[in-house]
Amino acid sequence: MHPALPRSLDSAADQAALLVRLGTGPLLIGLDFDGTLAPIVDRPEGAGIDDAMRSRLTALAALVPTAVVSGRDLDDLGRRVAAPGAILVGSHGIEIAYPGDGVERAPGLERSDAALGALIRDLRAATADLSGVLVEPKRHSVAVHWRLAGPAEEAAAERIVEEASGSFPAFRIGRGKKVAEFRPAIERDKGSAVGLLRDHAAAGGGVPSVLYIGDDVTDEDAFRALDPDRDTGILVATPPRHSAAGWCLADTAAVADFLDRLIEVRCGLSP
Ligand SMILES: O=P(O)(O)OC[C@H]1O[C@H](O[C@H]2O[C@H](CO)[C@@H](O)[C@H](O)[C@H]2O)[C@H](O)[C@@H](O)[C@@H]1O
Q1: Are the beta carbons of 241 and 5 closer than 8 angstroms?
Q2: For residue 143, which atom of ligand 1 is closest to its CA?
Q3: What lines the ligand 1 site, CB under 6 Å?
Q4: Contact, 150 vs 157, CB < 8 A?
Q5: Which residues on neighbouring strands pair with residue 235, listed in sequence order?
Q6: 114 and 74, same structural domain?
């Protein structure tokens, strides 16, 4: 299916109709972190959620399986989310931590893990003189950010990423908001992770429908994995852009309001 413009959930009537559908039956919730739960900020280390969002996630996780699905690695994500009961999915689906049940890591990481240190060293050396370009090392990958860079530095960072990608075939390049990421060249993304989360939830009861909310290019993998007849994808964007998600919310504040209403309907507090 070709991506189309998602429909805005600004209208109270649309939101109410959707919430009625999400209010009963087995449900699995997947929520992206940066740009969906946490507002986008200039530097990766500055992103976070407030206590209200943490309580919201904890409340949702007590009601239905609720996963935070991020490009950040699991340790970083865990520190920032800190919501008891939430499932954590790190490194774009490569690492999955079910509460109280250890970490499941995708197979096939040996080659990229072995090359990661050299890649990080090369990227740091190549970008050292580029003002506003940041290298973010992660457990299985590395990101090159240019949100704080001018156009010339951004173009230079893009060239460095292209050159390094030729020397490190164990990685593939993923794009995001003002960032390029070297991700292990294996078959795992947020879409396949949603499939694994659904199977895990189904093992404990009925096969759930999925609600997935995300804002970035990598969330499109998750939206594409949804079944349009029973699942719900919500893009977070202003203005809306073409997406495999069917619905759209404006920003992280609108996501917070929507999740509050979802908690109310799941608790039977509103229709
Ligand atoms: O899958 P996500 O949870 O959305 O993570 C995607 C990447 O998010 C982070 O970078 C983005 O957010 C930063 C903080 O707001 C922002 O400065 C940057 O421009 C964005 O690209 C994170 O740093 C990456 O590791 C994640 O992969």
Answers
A1: yes
A2: 25
A3: 32-35, 40-44, 47, 70-72, 136, 143, 145, 147, 176-179, 181, 216, 218
A4: no
A5: 214, 248
A6: no
ipTM of the complex: 0.99
Task: Give me 159's structure tokens.
Answer: 């060239």
Mean pLDDT of 10-37: 94
Please name the residue whose Cα sits nearest to atom 21 of ligand 1.
177
Rounded to the nearest integer, the mean pLDDT of the chain is 96
Catalytic status, residue 42: no
Question: 122 and 95: one domain?
Answer: no
pTM of the model: 0.96
Assigned domain for 271 exists: no
Residue ending a domain, among 184, 200, 228, is 184
Q: Tell me the pLDDT band of 229, cut-offs 50, 70 and 90.
A: very high
What is the Cα–Cα distance from 41 to 28, expressed in whole angstroms? 28
Query: Which atom of ligand 1 has the smallest separation from the CA of 76?
Result: 25
CATH at residue 201: 3.40.50.1000
31 and 85 share one domain: yes
Question: How many whole angstroms from 72 Cα to the centroid of ligand 1?
Answer: 7
Give yes or no: residues 168 and 37 share one domain: no
pLDDT digits (tens, 9 = 90+) for 175-208: 999 999 999 999 999 999 999 999 999 997 789 9
- Ligand 1 atom nearest the C-alpha of 147 is 19
Query: What's the CA angle centered on 180, arms 7 and 139, to 5 degrees?
Result: 105
| Catalytic one of 10, 14, 32, 229 | 32
